[in-house]
Every structure is written in C-alpha cells, then in structure tokens.
Design a protein that fits this description.
By secondary structure, the protein is of the alpha+beta class. The protein has three domains: 220 residues, PAS domain (Beta-Lactamase), CATH 3.30.450.20; 85 residues, Signal transduction histidine kinase, dimerisation/phosphotransfer (DHp) domain (Helix Hairpins, Orthogonal Bundle); 151 residues, 2-Layer Sandwich (Heat Shock Protein 90), CATH 3.30.565. The strands form three sheets. It has a five-stranded antiparallel sheet, with helices on both faces. Helix 2 runs antiparallel to helix 4, helix 2 runs antiparallel to helix 6 and helix 7 packs antiparallel against helix 8. The longest helix has 53 residues. The chain is rod-shaped and about 160 Å long. The two termini are 49 Å apart.
C-alpha cells in the first residue's frame, strides 16, 4: 500500500511531469523525423528506379520500332534485351500492339491475350505513365512505342518491377533509425532524471524550510533564491508568515488583555466582599457603600462583555450586513438626541451641522454604533464647558461625517494605535469614565464593513477630529 501511494505521489509530482515533458520533446521529433525520412527514402528510391527503367525502356522502344518487332518478333537481340531488362530489375516486360493484344511477355504467360487498362489506353494516345502501387509494392510504367520517323503510336511497352529490394533496404534503414531513437531516448531519460532532480531541488529545500518553520526549528524565514520564481515565492511566504505571526501575537495579546480586563473587576469585587466579611459589626452605611462599589464593578464587567460581543459580531463577514436605504440626517439627529443628556452632565455643547440631505445604503444598527462611539468619546474625553461639533456632507459618491471636539487630544505617538483592541491613551482617565478600549476598534470594523474609511487628526491638549467616509451605494 505504501509503495502504491508513493508511486501515485510520484506520478503527480512536478519531477515526473518534467521527465515526461523531456521525453516527449526529445523523442517525438525523432519519431516524426524517422517516419518522414523513411517515406522520403521510399519515394526517392521509387522515383530513381522509375527514371532509370524508363530511360532504358525508351532506348529499347526505339529499337523495337526500327525493327518492327511488334509485328514480326524476328529479332533475337531485342528478345534478349527484353529479358535482360526483366531480370535486372526483377520485373516483367510486356509489349502490346495497337489492338490491345499482348505480343510479347517476358514471363511467357499472357502472350496473344488482350489487355485493356487505363494506363495502356493513355499510352496508346501518346502519354508516358509511371505509377507506384505501395500496397502491391510494384512500380508500373507504360510508354508508347512510336513508328520510326513518325508520331504514330504502334504499341505500348508495359514494365512492372518489384520494389521488394528497395523496401528491404528501407526496412534496414528503419531498424537502424529505431535503434538510434532508442539510444537517444535512453540518453534523454537519463538527462531528464538528472535535470528534473536539479530543477526541483530548490522546491524541496523550500518544503523542508517550511516544515522547519512549522516545527519551530527555523526562525530566519524562507530564503531560497535559486530561481526568480523561488525568490518571489520566498518573499511572499515570508510576508505571509510575518503577517500570520503578527496576527498570532495580536491574538495572544488580545486574549491576555481580555483576561486582564475581565479579571480586574472580579478582583475588585472579591476584595470588597472579603473586606465586608472580615468586619463583624460593620455599619449599614459601609455595607451600602461596598455594595454600590460592587454594583459599579459588575456594570463595568457587563460593559466589557457587551463591547466584546459587539466586536465579535463586527468581525463577521460583510455578508451579515443588513443593508437598507437610510436618511443619514435623521440618523445623526437621533444619535445626538440620545447622547445629549451625557453632554449636559459635563456641560458640553453638542452641535449637529448638515450641509445637504443625505440618503445612503447602510446597515443602520452597525453604523449607528460606530458614530455613537465617536461622539460619546468626544464627550467623555472633553473638558468642562467644552464643545463637540458633528458635521454631515456628501458628494456624488460618498457621504462624510466629521466629529470634532475641544477635548484633551491624543498624543502623536498614540494615533497609530488607537484602533487596537484594549488600547487606551490615558488608562487612568479611561478607567475613571468607564472606557473599555474597544470602542474605536468596533467603530473601525463597522466603517470598513461598509467599504468606508476613517481617519483621526489630533493635537494634544487642543482636541481631536475624526472623519468618516462611507459610499452612498453599498458595493458587496
């Protein structure tokens, strides 16, 4: 079974295909050339023999006409020459008069008989005909015999010779050619096995390196630069491996952050509960205070879990989007209406400015969550008596939402990290206001699912601007 699997694996390998290609490219032309050469050899031999026989037959035909041999058959020398021609070429010579009667036959079989054939008829009209019958392996020629000093045709000479000797020589040449082709095939096979092994060696090195990388023995990446293709494959693999490593590191960091974020409220609750249990006669007011702290920690835990669930939903494919035509102006007014109470607690001025009516194809729930996160962050990370301006504009292709605040701003070195999960610019302030570090990650995912883009601009201590661009028509 293992041998059978190994053989099937070899048949599907690139090396086998290279060997097969070399054999086809190397041997097929040899076979074609051999067949063409043998055919050309046979045709050339038949043509050469036909010319030689016709030239001798013409001389003999002139003598036959001069001695009126067809009517008298009294010239012994002509009879001898006819027999010689027949013996030399291993063939048969017949003389036919104008009445289609055979007057002479070197085989002595059909004399006095009548013969009517297309070739004889044409030759009696003055045509010279030569025909090679490959099936019967005979070369047949008919030529007219004209009267002396006249154009009158008085008879026909029909010469039929065997091609066996020529074909025997052709077969001998063919056998030699076959042996030569076999030798060439063996040499090509040996070369193909050697060359294919050298050609696929870089691919095997790549396979081994990938296996070593998978098992952790190789940390330098894939570096097989033998060919341009293997170099490009190595570079592409290293890029992919680097990205996968980054994703894996991000996943591990994410799991670690989730564990930490979920464990912190639980630890706080356990400390509070242990403190209460350690007090034998704690006053009711202290119990209430501790229970209120525990309630706050539970709410914080619940908010983290809710944001995590939202983020998981956002990570699903865009096929889960519930796209419909939505009035963006009304959607923003509703968002600001819900958040106005939070803004009033901090005495934050919340303003919506729209330049034109906008209707777009969006998932209202997901995009509402994204814009809500941006506006809520702008309120929470603001100064007292500050402001948050939300503007809406559109062109023929996109609509634009800008959320601008007068808040604490974001340091320049933190701007590139703000969309990372659980990343906080000011951790102490974030914990005070109940931030989970997931809001902007959720927002970015929602925007990208709509084939949109989000950008942040900020000056520390002065404020932050988020711009969101979404296509008016959703493209799946």
């Amino acid at each position: 079974m293992k041998k059978n699997n190994a053989f099937q694996k070899f048949l599907k390998s690139m090396r086998f295909r290279l060997i097969l290609l070399c054999l086809i490219v190397g041997i097929l032309p040899c076979l074609v050339l051999r067949a063409g050469f043998l055919k050309a050899y046979e045709d050339q031999a038949a043509s050469t023999r036909s010319i030689a026989i016709i030239s001798q037959a013409k001389i003999l035909a002139d003598q036959i006409a001069a001695n009126d041999y067809i009517n008298k058959q009294n010239t012994e020398s002509i009879t001898v020459q006819l027999n010689q021609l027949s013996n030399i070429y291993d063939g048969r010579v017949m003389l036919i008069d104008s009445a289609f009667r055979i007057v002479a036959d070197t085989y002595g079989l059909d004399e006095t008989k009548t013969i009517i054939s297309e070739e004889v008829v044409q030759s009696l009209s003055g045509k010279e005909i030569s025909k090679y019958d490959k099936e019967s392996r005979y070369l047949e020629m008919t030529l007219p015999i004209k009267a002396a000093n006249s154009t009158e045709v008085i008879g026909v000479m029909l010469v039929s010779v065997s091609m066996d000797s020529v074909l025997h020589d052709r077969d001998a040449v063919g056998r030699n050619a076959a042996i030569l082709t076999l030798i060439i095939g063996v040499l090509i096979l040996a070369f193909a096995i050697f060359a294919s092994g050298r050609l696929v060696r870089p691919l095997r090195r790549m396979e081994k390196s990938i296996r070593d990388i998978q098992t952790g023995y190789e940390e330098d990446g894939l570096n097989v630069n033998t060919y341009t293709e293997t170099k490009e494959m190595s570079e592409s693999f290293n890029q992919l491996f680097g990205r996968m490593k980054t994703i894996d590191d991000s996943r591990q960091e994410f799991v670690s952050n989730v564990s930490h974020e979920l464990k912190t409220p639980l630890t706080s609750m356990k400390v509070l509960a242990d403190s209460i249990n350690a007090m034998e006669d704690a006053p009711v007011e202290l119990y209430k205070e501790f229970m209120e702290d525990i309630t706050n920690e539970i709410e914080r835990e619940n908010k983290i879990i809710t944001d995590l669930l939202s983020l998981v939903k956002m990570d699903k494919s865009a096929a889960d989007l519930n796209i419909s035509s939505i009035n963006i102006n009304e959607m923003l007014e509703l968002i600001l209406k819900r958040l106005r109470s939070i803004a009033e607690k901090q005495n934050i001025e919340l303003v919506l400015e729209t330049f034109r009516p906008v209707t777009a194809e969006i998932d209202e729930v997901k995009l509402t969550l994204a814009i809500t996160n941006l506006v809520e962050n702008a309120i929470k990370y603001n100064r007292e008596n500050g402001w948050v301006h939300v503007t809406l504009n559109a062109d023929y292709q996109y609509f634009y939402v800008k959320v601008e605040d007068s808040g604490i701003g974001i340091p320049e070195d933190s701007l590139e990290h703000i969309y990372e999960r659980f990343y906080r610019v000011d951790k102490s302030h974030s914990r005070e206001i109940g931030g989970t570090g997931l809001g902007l990650a959720i927002t970015r995912n929602a925007v990208l699912m709509h084939r949109g883009a989000i950008k942040a601009y900020s000056t520390e201590g002065e404020g932050t601007i988020f711009t969101v661009r979404i296509p008016l028509n959703y493209i799946a």
